Amino acid sequence: MAEAILMPRLSDTMTEGVIAAWHKNVGDAVKKGDVLADIETDKATMELESYQDGILLHQGTPNGGKIQVNELLAIFGKAGEDITALIAQHAGGAKAADSTPSATEKKAEPVPAPEKKAEAASAKPSPDAAAMEEVVLMPRLSDTMTEGVIASWQKNVGDPVKKGEVLADIETDKATMELESYKDGILLYQGAKAGEKILVNDLLCIIGKQGLDVAAIVAAVKAGGTHSDAAPEAAVAAQPASENKPEATTSAAAPAAEVVNDGRILASPLAKKVATEKGIDLRYVKGTGDGGRITKTDIDNYIPASPAAAPATATASKATAIVAPAGQVSFEDVPVSQMRKVIAKRLSESLFTAPHFYLTMSIDMDAAVAARGKINEVAPVKVSFNDMVLKATALALKQHPKVNSSWLGDKIRYNHHINIGVAVAVEDGLLVPVVRFADGKSLSQIGAEVKEFAQKAKDKKLQPADWEGSTFTISNLGMFGIDQFTAIINPPDSCILAVGGIAQVPVVKNGQVVSGNVMKVTLSCDHRAVDGATGSAFLQTLKSLLEEPLRMLV
User: Do residues 275 and 196 share a domain?
Assistant: First the structure.
């Protein structure tokens, strides 16, 4: 049975996508995982993979055309199927109605009558047909994503779902993103529980009409090559929604443990952030805002229930710290987050693949300290020392392009543009948003951009376009009191600069020992692309710019 594929929402602010290039033509055979098209969003150009096998029967628009989110992107099915009705069903506006069937579509013959009769005679839809109609697979939500973790389900089994409603919050290696439904129906099956992992293109959920043979669909999808470890629960589809929701605690001693929020939870972004930090499940928090919306005050006032009813004579403990029992071994195993997995994988590959060497230099920051004070008297945005280091680094890279390079195996790419990644610490690890064309930006522009990136990183709002495309990276731990350290190169860059704090130490000037402001920097270099002399020359230029900051303004 032919299936309509709608334009997915590939970023949090995306409203429409532009087809940068189709990789499959009408009539081509497509396998699950094949790249269908390059979709240009408001953030980046991303590859859209097929979630199933079939024949591409229809393209919603040619190369360069725009399609709104949730509008008809493509139709898959079997060769010869009549898709006229399906196109009309998703017309919704002039765009789809005006589309002219391609030559391949005009020649398409209706499905033979015997096959139609066989389908009509069956009390239940065939697994293949049902799966083609109702299966939702885990999408690839970032360029490096291989699996996703269900942070939370916003819909329970048995709940009605409308196109555009949020099904679940998916934690990727980069951020937590909302996954919207592409169709109307009933949520009949969930491929994993909250907190569990699902590989990209594995069964995420099934949406359809009551009465579908969910067990048969799950079996058919798994037979097609998916890898989800979640055991299919055939009885789930037949159960009322209330039977699939967490049971409310009935103990009178712990009334706060009752579930007060079913389905979609309304909460302010700050409340969600604070709840995550405190480990509070929002299903148990009663909101006092408009429409029951949970606010930060509700989180601050929330008192978790006891795990078991305490004796009447016991005094409730308000201690929140974990205290190990005296004389006993105590520990906690915490599952590795998606972000930490990717950090471990990429940096291990970098350290054990790229031959690192390190160059350390001390820089006199007296002039920079004085200049920063004067700059901030007139600057629209407060400029930090890190902003000054970033600007000086960008200008030094212009003079030393061999440092602004990438090792590509059989060639070295010397980048003419200067995009500097700035390592930002977040709860689960670090992210590296990119300040693009940094050599052409003022200190105030750099300062504003870095501050915005830091906030977006902590709020998990960074998008692929924010962290892709660096040519050099800076990691600054000076604000944590670190004097000096070495950093692992961030691929595909050839170098990374580790920046320590500015310390007041005795220095010799004009034959006299005086107090001076000194900052140590260490350049980690990939010896395959950058030699010691090249890296040293770069650091000398960087030193001269920071020791005479006026040179950065010329």
Answer: no
Helix, strand, coil tally for the chain in percent (to 5): 30, 25, 45
Q: Which residues contact 115 (CB under 8 A, 6 or more apart)?
A: none
Q: What is the pLDDT of residues 56-82, one digit of tens each?
A: 999 999 988 888 888 888 888 888 888
Q: Are residues 7 and 106 in the same domain?
A: yes
- Name the DSSP letter for residue 267: B
Q: Which H/E stretch holds residue 483?
A: none
Alpha carbon distance 502, 519 (integer Å): 5
For Cα atoms 322, 337, 14, give the angle at the middle one, nearest 5 degrees: 130
Q: Determine contact, residues 506/518, Cβ cutoff 8 Å.
A: no
What is the separation of C-alpha 328 from the centre of its chain, rounded to a whole number of angstroms?
A: 40
Active-site annotation holds for 531? yes
The residue annotated as part of the active site, out of 28, 82, 459, 527, is 527
Which amino acid belongs to residue 429? G
Helix (H) or strand (E) run with residue 485 in it: none
CA–CA dist 132, 2 (Å, integer):
7
φ and ψ of 35, to 5 deg = -80, 120
Strand partners, 429: 426
Domain of 380 in residue numbering reads as 339-553
Report residue 38 as tokens. 């390059």
Task: Give the containing element (helix H, strand E) for 440.
Answer: none
Q: Average model confidence (pLDDT) for the chain? A: 78
Q: How many CB atoms lie within 10 A of CB 180?
A: 19
Nearest to 542 by CA among 358, 357, 354, 368: 368
Q: 3-class SS at 393?
A: helix
Q: For the chain, how many residues are written?
A: 554
**Which residues are registered as beta bridge partners of 39?**
19, 46
Last residue of a domain, one of 92, 121, 150: 121
Structural tokens at position 288: 């006092």
- DSSP, residue by residue, 28-53: -EE-TT-EEEEEE-SS-EEEEE-SS-
pTM of the entire structure? 0.50
Residue 7 counted as domain residue:
yes
Q: Which of 12, 229, 300, 531 is catalytic?
A: 531
How many CA atoms lie within 13 Å of 552's alpha carbon, on the beta-carbon side? Answer: 32
Taking the CA atoms of residue 152, residue 154, residue 159 and residue 163 in that order, the dihedral angle to the nearest 10 degrees is -130
Q: Pick the closest to residue 516 from 368, 360, 361, 359 (CA basis).
A: 368
Asked if 271 and 138 sit in the same domain, the reply is: no
| Residue 324 domain-assigned (yes or no) | no
Asked if 77 contacts 30 with a C-beta cutoff of 8 angstroms, the reply is no
Q: What average pLDDT values come out for the chain (554 residues) when binned by 10 residues?
A: 81 76 91 83 72 86 88 88 84 43 38 34 36 70 77 90 85 76 86 88 88 83 52 31 35 52 75 79 84 83 59 37 64 77 84 94 96 92 94 97 94 96 84 93 94 85 83 94 95 96 91 93 97 97 96 83
From the list 225, 419, 413, 431, the residue with the least C-alpha distance to 342 is 431
